[in-house]
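[audit] Reproducing an earlier prediction to check determinism. Same input, same settings, fresh worker. If the tokens differ from the archived copy the diff job will pick it up downstream; this log only records the rerun itself.
[audit] input (153 residues):
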Amino acid sequence: MSDLLQKLSQMEENDLGNASRLFERYEHRILYVDQLGWFVWDGTRWKADPSEKDIRKLAHKTAKAIFDESKYAEEPIKRTRFAVQSGQSPRITAMIREFRGYVERSVGELDQDPWLMNVENGTLNLKTGKIAKHDPDDLITKLAPVKFDGDAK
């Protein structure tokens, strides 16, 4: 954690710096999809976040964590003041807006592999009949509410 805080303490004190902080902390948990909006990885699939509730929570955590950077910053008091400013609603909104470009995907990139099916206990490959751990890189948004049983007949 201290390596991350040291790295973050070197970032700029502006909206772009805060977008970079959000990226460093949550790049594998957040997507923006053109025409659809925000998606958050829930551990099994990419779930739509139409109200932006989940992404705002992650942005709030990012803003609060700027206080922790103060002990590594060249000017700790200045960094603490910046942390207070970063927690204000316009700064949270700006952080999210600037972050979008880091994680933007097209709608055509989602659910691309017709042979992969998400079930509760993993991702089933319909070609091979094998199940694998859920993987955000598969860009799957759907989840069948069943468990795969490889021994079932």
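[audit] rerun output stored. Observation attached for the diff report: Residues 45 and 136 are 7 Å apart (CA to CA).
[audit] end
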